[in-house]
Amino acid sequence: MATVVNASAGVDLPVALAPYATAIERSRHLLSLDNDWDGEGSPGYQETTWRRAVDIVLTSVTAFVERQPGAVLPVPAIAGGQDGGIDILWDAGTRHLMITVPPANDGPVTFHGFDQTNDAREVKGSLDPADANDWIVRWLTA
Asked: Is residue 44 within 8 Å of residue 37, measured between CB atoms?
């Protein structure tokens, strides 16, 4: 399988997932933000937290693509969250999902998602970042 290399994140991805390499690279700027980067005392972002967020994205989409080759997948934004945490913001049509990765290993990784057309399709809870979690992409693309 042909791969595209994202050297800064240290990952190899199938060519079909090249847009994820771009999103990961774009998010890397978070690591350059020192403590008090906003003038309000916010902590900087740790590489271990950023890597956990990147790993969640990559394991989720890789597992999904292995089960459904050729599927068109939404690409998330990986953004700075509160208190040094990192948020993964995933949108697909009317469905929106935010995964919050706390700094280091400080607490559970949580998620909250909803479908604008059907509030009953709300999902929330915590997830194990060690799992594939391809259900995330299945839920977004259903």
From this structure: yes
Find the domain containing 42 and state its range: 3-141
Q: Is 10 left (phi over 0), alpha (psi -120 to 50) or beta?
A: left
Record the pTM. Answer: 0.88
Helix (H) / strand (E) containing 88: strand 86-92
For the chain, helix, strand, coil in percent to 5 are 35, 30, 35
User: What are the start-end ranges of the E strands in the chain?
Assistant: 3-6, 11-14, 77-80, 86-92, 95-101, 109-115, 118-127
Query: Please, what is the end-to-end C-alpha distance for the chain in angstroms?
Result: 27
Q: Which amino acid appears at position 99 of this protein? A: I
Quick: pLDDT tens for 30-89.
Answer: 999 999 999 999 999 999 999 999 999 988 988 888 888 877 788 999 999 999 999 999
